[in-house]
Every structure is written in structure tokens, then in C-alpha cells.
Amino acid sequence: MSSELVTVYLFGKKYQVPSSLTIMEAMEYCGYQLVRGCGCRNGFCGACATIYRIEGDSELKGCLACQTKVEDKMYVATLPFFPLVKKVYDIEKIKPDMQIMMQLYPEIYSCIGCNACTKACTQELNVMQYIAYAQRGEFEKCAEESFDCVMCGVCSSRCPAGISHPQVAELARRLYGKYIQPESEHLVNRVSEIENGDFVKMMEDIMGKPIEEMKELYNNREIEK
Amino acid sequence: MSLPYTQEMLDSVKKVEATRAARMQTELRRMTADEKDDVLQKFHPDYKMDGFEILQMGPNKGEKAPAELAALLQGKSRLDGKEISLQNPDYDVDVLVIGGGGAGSSAAVEAHAAGAKVMIVTKLRLGDANTMMAEGGIQAADKENDSPAQHYLDAMGGGHFTNVPELLQKLVTEGPSAVNWLDHLGVMFDKDENGRMITTHGGGTSRKRMHAAKDYSGADIMRTLRDEVLNRQIPVVDFTAVVELVKDSEGKAAGAVLMNMETKEVYVARAKTVIIATGGAGRMHYQGFPTSNHYGATADGLVLAYRAGARLLYQDTLQYHPTGVAFPAQIFGALVTEKVRSMGAQFVNREGEAYMHPLETRDVSAASVIRECRERGKGVQTPLGQGVWLDSPMIDEIHGKGMLEKRLPGMLRMFGKYDIDMREVPILIYPTLHYQNGGIRISADGMTDVENLYVAGEAVGGIHGRNRLMGNSLLDIIVFGRSAGQHAAAKAKSVEVKDLTIDFVKEFEHEEEEAGIHSSILSPQLLPDYRPEGMKTI
Questions:
Q1: Touching check for A63 and chain B: CB below 8 Å?
Q2: d(CA B444, CA B205)
Q3: Domains, chain A, ranges and CATH?
Q4: What CA–CA distance (Å, rounded) separates B293 from B335?
Q5: Do residues B232 and B101 share a domain?
Q6: Which ranges constitute the DSSP H helices of chain A?
Q7: Domain residues for B409?
Q8: Are residue B238 and residue B126 in the same domain, yes or no?
């Protein structure tokens, strides 16, 4: 691990930090006790959405602070909250058709195709593409394309049309999971067998066994290949 | 882009590659019960006595607990003698849910569905929880060759026959309906074209009953539950921690004292029933281990409940996940899902030897990784310690090219950010503090020793005994979360809250004094502190 120091600007203030650190670790190294902008610290929760620019580079980049190493002359601003629009609906009452998108998130049809969302995505998702799928009511494609979304909101912060991409995708995933993916017959059957009491006897049998007998059963159980 | 492995690592990778074809042809032997006991006793951190202390007071007096936890259980209230007016509560609800993870959200949704006035209070954001990070999957006995009894046997054996029978019975019996509930809320489970769940093994399972949503299983469950909480417009008071519970004059749980994490303003919430769903303790870094847990995993619920008089169970057993990231340093301790092993990747040492079956239970696997490094000297040196290989390129060789990317996109991305393509080269792992096996003791309806105080999720002790199987935690947060919500809502209907009091905190502190404890450690801890040691501040 390299221990050379690089210069970073946290909210504009200059600090020197080891180059091996992530942005989040660098903030802590500089003495910040984080409350906001820090969640799972493993790239799954989107709490540490961050915008940065490297001096001399015109491009503004989006990243997760816990997953991105510091660079020399990096200007960092965290985005611990972004006002996404989350529409309220009843999952039992809506249908997986185009109308629902038009009704809940009509702004997706104002997309101007600038692709700033995709460029900003911290997960390298093709955000503009999944919005296009949502516009057309292609929920399976939208769900698959957006699946790794951590809902950090950096895409929406860059959108001139005011789209809340992560919420659109969340709706598409729930519609796909609930209405479009085929029903699991074996699961539904098993639930009714259990409700019917079909497994009560079997459970009583095993729970009634002395520990030694249960150990014997466990150590010699057949393991599915 | 260049692979950041050291020369020693690269030399070892060659040995791993050289033995791969032969290893793939051999069925690895599973350990005997005696061999497992031996490796656990010698190498598992739970058996290392200097990491523990005996509790001097409180409901579990005389029992051992991790030293860091004991310090908080016997710590000092954040109220620190300050007078808090309980007369005019800022919030008044039927059911108060503490914690915004999978268990808390499930509880809130069910309490709301039962018609209760419910509120969630969480010290970070809704969804900042270990649930979000559970990668591998959720168990449920829903296939034809499986049964709740078979699931019971696997979990009982994995837990070394110490699981509380009625809690485990509930877990496995209500497993299929929990998965069905999630399925109908819109979680994107991996299914084949006919709707059959694609299920795999986890360490210690005898049937393939691990359901997944790629390797974002917990994330997809959490996203869905969060969306459902918001759709139901359940109030969420975020960035607000509970610093003490509140009781009524009859000694029943009746609310909590809350603190805004940013402004430090204090509020009082009155409730007819209270559900603790505060999760685990990885950020306590027991015995100096790194952790796979989220930022807020500091055992708060155990501290709150203990002070209110609830007994803990198995507070001395932790789960060290065998496959935490050992390299690179930026993701040290992060979780490498067990699904990598479910899909065939083996543990391989520096010499290229697959020294154990990849699907032993987590405690046995973790202890064996530690033994390989410490005793046998066959670990690979890393800047922060040692590790052994997890031979991830085996996955595409077994299942066909593209399968690792399809089933493990999160893992591929995590290592890819550091120029490690796990489809091409093996990855280095070492155990990481992952799960709090023990917690607060409950009865099957979720209630603790304190009337009207319920617990769900990782803060519960006893469901998993002294070791939890993969996929039984996502299951328990749903089964016990829903159940706690239902029971707390039903109970609230007949509760009449008497005068509020926090006198029990003073009594607890008095008991501490009598035991000769004069702690200055404020608890619950709420968050870890990663600022540099010795930093001068005023």
C-alpha cells in the first residue's frame, strides 16, 4: 500500500491525506465524525453519494465515498440527501402497464436524452436506457437494467428534466417482481400445506427427540447433491 | 488497469491455477463432528477467553459477554442525571418501532396493516441496516424434497443444538409464508421461466433452500420494504436515536427518550408497546476484528433492554464470517457472500491446496481459515495481515462463462473497482465480524422479560443458538419482524399506559455503584468513532 500523501479539498477546504484511503476514510482521517453521508460503508446503501471534480478537468463525477479512492487535487462535496420524488401507491391495486408510469412519474416523458444520469451513475448503470424502458412500459427490462441501483440520487441531481430515476426504477422492479415474474407454484403449495397442518406431526417428532438422537440424525443426514 | 497483487500473491496464484483442474475433479471430504469441535475450540474467537468479561450486575450477572459489550451494558446513561420531563410527550403512538432495517420495517408494515398507529424511529436513515448488505439469500423449506423439520434439523445442528426450540420451530414453519409475503410485495427473486425458485446450498444446509435476488438479496428486500413503509405513509423519525426506554408506573415498557443525532435535541415518545429492532454489533469490533456490518451496528438495543431489566441470551457468541475481504485494504473486512462458495469456489491456501470442504458451517469455516494462517503457516501475506484464497474463477468453469457476472454482480463490481477481476483471478479472504448470534431473550410472541417490550431481528438471542446458518437471518427478520408487529399491535389494543417514568435508570445506576462499577463510558454507543487516535480537539 502506498503511503504517499495527496491533496484533497473537502467541501473546499484543503487537507493532505494518504493516497490509499477512500474518500470516506479520508474525511475521518481529517477528523470528521460522520453522522450523515455514511451508511453501510460497503457500497450497497447509497448514503455516501458524492460529487467530485479533479482540478483541471471539466468533468463533474459522481461516486460513493466508501467505494472510491482519493486522488490528488480532488474537490469533494458529499450529497447525503437529495430531494427525490417518491409517489405513494397501493401495490395491490396498480397494474403493470404504461398508464401507471404516466400517472405517477409523468416527468420521465420529458427526458431530453442528455445522458447526464448515466454519466453520473455511481454504479455504472445505463440509467437513461432504463428510463427509456420505463417510458415504454417494458418493466422487465427496466427492472434488470436498474437492478444494482443503490438509490443514491446522483443521477437525479444532474437531470434537467427533474426525473427521480431511482424511484421510477423501484416501481418498475416491484411491478416486475409481483406481477410479471411467474408465480412460484411450489411456494404457494407449501404455504397452504403448512397452513393445513401437514407438517405438524413431522415437526413434533423431531422436536421430541433427545439431543443425542438428534445429533445422530444430523451427523448422518443425507445432503442433496 | 493492473492487478494490484504483490509478487508473493502472484506466485501463489500460479499454484492455485496449477491445481485447479485436479481440484475440480475431487469431492472434498466434510469434517467429522470431533474434528469440528477441535478446530472451534482452538481457533474460534468465541473460545478465546481473554476477549470476554464476567458481568458484575444486571439481569445476566455472573455470565460472560464480549469485553467491549460488557463495558456498554455496565456503562453510564446518556441522560447522566439530567431531568427529562415526561409529562407532555412529543410523540404518542400505539406501537413504537426502534430501528429502520428489515425487522423494524416488517414490524411496522404489519402493525400498520393491523390498524395500529405506528412510528419508526431510526438513528440513521430508513434502510441503513445490515439487511441492506445481506447478499447471499434467504432460506425457506418450500421445495418438494424439503420440509420445515429438515430445516429445523439443519439449523439445530449448525447452532450446536443450543437453539431455543420454540423460536426455531417458528422460524422454519413460517419460512415459506415469509418468502411468499416478500414475493407478493414484489421482491425480484431468482426464478426459472416456470416460476420455480432457483435455490442453492448454504454452509450447513442439507437441502437447496437458499432463495436469492442475485447477490443483492437483502438490498432488494430492504428496498421493497422501505418502499412499502413509505407507501403506507408510516411516520419515520430519522437521524434520531433512542437513548433510553421509558416505562410506566407499573413497570411496563411505555415509550422512549429520543435524541436528534445532529442537533442533540431530546424528545419523548409515549407508546403502548415498543419493538426493539436495532440490529447487530459489528461496529464494536470485538477482539479487534474488522466487520462486514453497517455503520450503526453498535448493540444499542441490548444496552437499552438490559438497563430496563430484560435478560440477554447467548450474548457471548458472535459470528465471524469466514470470507471477509483480506485484500485490498480499502474494503478490508467487507463481506464476500457465501454464495461464492455455494456456487463452487473452494478455500485454497498459499500452496494451492483445497484444505477443506467449502460448505462447512460458518464458525467451522472461519476457525479453519484462522488455523490455516496461524498454525499451519499456509496463509498469504497481505499489508494488513494474512488471508487464504477463495478460488472464484471456478464458478464460471463449473456453471459456464457469464454465470459469475449474472449471479454475483455486486461482488464482481466491488473487486473490479480495485482492478481485481474475480472471474480471472482468485480473491483473498479472512474472517470478519459479521453477526451477533445472541441478543435479547424473547418468548415465541416476541416479548421480552419486560411487559410490552418486544424484540425482532438481530437483536434477538436464541433463534440460531450459538451459530447461525447462512440465509436464516434474512428469514428471521421477516418472520419475527412481522410477528412482533402483529403481536405488538394486538397487545396495544388492551394497554392503558400509566404515568411515565425513567426511575429504573437511576435504580440501574444504583445497582452499578453497589457492584463497585463507576463507569464513565456513555451507552448506548450509537456510532463508532474512526477519527485518528490522539487527535487534539477543544
A1: no
A2: 24
A3: 5-78 (3.10.20.740), 82-212 (1.10.1060)
A4: 8
A5: yes
A6: 23-29, 98-104, 116-120, 127-135, 139-145, 154-157, 165-175, 185-195, 200-207, 211-219
A7: 7-30+320-433
A8: yes
CB-CB under 8 Å, A88 with B233:
yes
Contact A147/B at CB under 8 A: yes
CATH number for the domain harbouring residue B273: 3.50.50.60
State pLDDT tens for residues A55-111.
Answer: 999 999 999 999 999 999 999 999 999 999 999 999 999 999 999 999 999 999 999
The secondary structure of residue B189, as a DSSP letter, is -
CB contact under 8 A, A39 and B125: yes
Domain presence at residue B512: no
- State whether residue A42 sits within 8 Å of chain B by CB: yes
Q: Which residue(s) pair with B460 in the sheet?
A: B440
Instruction: Note whether residue B526 is domain-resident.
Output: no
Question: Is residue A2 less than 8 Å (CB to CB) from chain B?
Answer: no
Pair B137, B228 in one domain: yes
Question: What amino acid occupies position A219?
Answer: N
To the nearest 5 percent, what fractions of chain A are helix, strand and coil? 40, 15, 45
Residues of B in contact with A104 (CB under 8 A): none
Domain co-membership, B161 together with B233: yes
With an 8 Å Cβ cutoff, are B133 and A222 in contact? no
- The closest alpha carbon to B164, from B313, B12, B360, belongs to B313
ipTM of the prediction? 0.97
Q: Are B370 and B431 in contact (CB under 8 A)?
A: yes
Tens digit of each residue's pLDDT (9 = 90 or more) over B473-521: 999 999 999 999 999 999 999 999 999 999 999 999 999 999 999 999 9
Same domain, B218 and B342: no
pLDDT digits (tens, 9 = 90+) for B78-108: 998 788 999 999 999 999 999 999 999 999 9
d(C-alpha A27, C-alpha A35), whole Å? 12
Residue A152 touches chain B, beta carbons under 8 Å = no
Residues B469/B360, Cβ–Cβ less than 8 Å: no
Query: In this structure, what C-alpha cell is assigned to residue B517?
Result: 462499577
Task: Say whether pLDDT at A204 is over 80.
Answer: yes
Q: How confident is the model at residue B160 (pLDDT cuts 50, 70, 90)?
A: very high
Q: Where among B416, B433, B450 does a domain terminate?
A: B433
pLDDT value at position B1? 59
Number of domains in chain B: 2
B457 in a structural domain: yes
Residues 304-343 on B with a CB inside 8 Å of A are 328-331, 334-335
Q: pLDDT by residue (tens digit) across B362-389?
A: 999 999 999 999 999 999 999 889 999 9
The answer to whether the CB atoms of B33 and A219 lie below 8 A apart is: yes
CB-CB under 8 Å, A188 with B177 = no
CA–CA dist A132, A138 (Å, integer): 9
* Mean pLDDT on B341-355: 96
The more confidently predicted of residues B537 and A135 is A135
Min CA distance, A143 vs chain B (Å)? 9
B128:A88 CB<8 A: no
Supply the CATH number for residue B393's domain: 3.90.700.10
* B511 is a domain residue: no
Cα A169 to Cα A114, A223, B199, B234: the distances in Å are: 19, 39, 26, 22
* B243 and B380 together in one domain: no
CA B178/CA B172 separation, integer angstroms: 10
- For residues B418 and B446, membership in a common domain is answered with no
Rounded mean pLDDT, A162-169: 98
Interface check for A197 against chain B (CB to CB < 8 A): the answer is no
Q: Within this chain, do residues B344 and B299 fall inside the same structural domain, yes or no?
A: no
Q: What is the mean pLDDT of chain B?
A: 96
Contact residues on chain A for B230, CB-CB shorter than 8 A: 86, 88
* Contact residues, chain A, for B162 at CB < 8 Å: none
Whether A51 and A43 have beta carbons less than 8 Å apart is answered as no
Considering B341, B357, B466, B487, which one is annotated as catalytic? B341
pLDDT in tens, B396-451: 999 999 999 999 988 999 999 899 999 999 999 999 999 999 999 999 999 999 99
